[in-house]
Amino acid sequence: MSVTCRLARTDSYCRYLLAKDELLKNILFLALGLLGLSTGWAACRQHEITPPPQVRINGDAVMIVVHESSTYDARFSTKRGVDEAIRFAKDRQIPVIYLQDDTPEEFYFMEDCHPDYWVFSAGGEVSFDVTASHLYIVGGHLELCMSAALHDIIHQWSRRAPRNYTITYLMDAIYSNGKMIDPADPFYHDFDRFLGIVTYGRPGGEHWPKLSLLETMGIIRKEDHQLNYLKQILPRWDTTFPKNFRIEVQLNNSVKKVLRSAEGWFPPTVLFHFVDSALLLSELQPSVSN
Asked: Most buried residue among 143, 213, 216, 277 by CB atoms closer than 10 A?
């Protein structure tokens, strides 16, 4: 007879206690199982790194995720944005490539641990061929590693036969330290105050919390100031693409602003398209399954 039943006064009460013990055991096992799953979701481990020469991009669009790690985005400001972005890409069969540096793997926080490729990139450099003409860019950070990635990609494009190119920035999935904001900018005080709040009590350096690009745009607010800021954070298209390329910038569904015109009726065009979120794109571009 079990200890539980020896303590019971009747057989029915004994059965009740045994059933209660079994229920508590099941709850405990379930809780431990969920804990194990949540730990597995928290980090992408034991994945294969693909050498750059072996990367093959199928199709004319690709999404590149640059160093999506809490090593840099300590407050997870881009967590929901990057997960939605990757979901958007996979729903439309757009290849997804994660760039990983040498910081701890457990700090990478994408929900989806199964891109088409994991590629090592210490500083955001892109040493594989980006053959697609439409790039979706997420991760960060905007002023450093992402900037390096974009400069490598547009350099590749500029050396190929002229055609149209698009870079779509998903702003709620891009983190930034705001260093392109000048103290003379009219919105600098608001930016400095917001950054001071999210970094309060934190150590300095690149490990401090970042802002998402969408949050930065919310601080700037005025359309003409937003346009000027977006111009400043673009890669150096002016020294990369020859004069026969037309250059445009667009915010969400606004009219396209021409940064540089080109001769001819249909010149090759590079569009830098800034979008609040992949959720907005999802409304405009149905998934393949639909």
From this structure: 213
Rounded CA gap, 213 and 275, in Å?
10
In this structure, the chain runs to a length of: 290
If asked whether residues 19 and 67 sit together in one domain, one would say no
Spell out the SS3 assignment of 133-199.
CEEEEEECCCCCHHHHHHHHHHHHHHCCCCCCEEEEEEEEEEEECCCCCCCCCCCHHHHHHHHHHHC
223 and 279: one domain?
A: yes
Find how far residue 189's CA is from the centre of its chain.
Answer: 27
Q: Which domain holds residue 159?
A: 52-284
**Which two tokens mark 283?**
């409304």
Q: Is pTM, for the whole model, over 0.85?
A: no
22 part of a folded domain: yes
Q: Report if residue 290 sits inside a domain.
A: no
For the chain, the farthest-separated pair of C-alpha atoms sits apart, in whole angstroms, at 96
- Considering the domain architecture, whether residues 18 and 106 belong to the same structural domain is answered as no
Does residue 185 form part of some domain? yes
Q: Report which of 200, 132, 212, 220 is spatially closest to residue 171, judged by C-alpha positions.
A: 212
Domain count for the chain: 2
Token pair for 49: 């790194």
Place of tokens 């930065």: 216
Q: Are residues 124 and 246 in the same domain?
A: yes
Radius of gyration of the chain (CA): 25
How do residues 62-76 score in pLDDT, each as one tens digit? 999 999 999 999 889
- What are the residue ranges in the chain where pLDDT is below 50? 2-3, 7, 28-41, 290
pLDDT at residue 202, rounded to an integer: 76
Compute the C-alpha angle 256/279/141, nearest 5°. 75
* Residues 213/176, Cβ–Cβ less than 8 Å: yes
> Do residues 199 and 69 both lie within one domain?
yes
Which tokens hold the place of 248? 């445009």
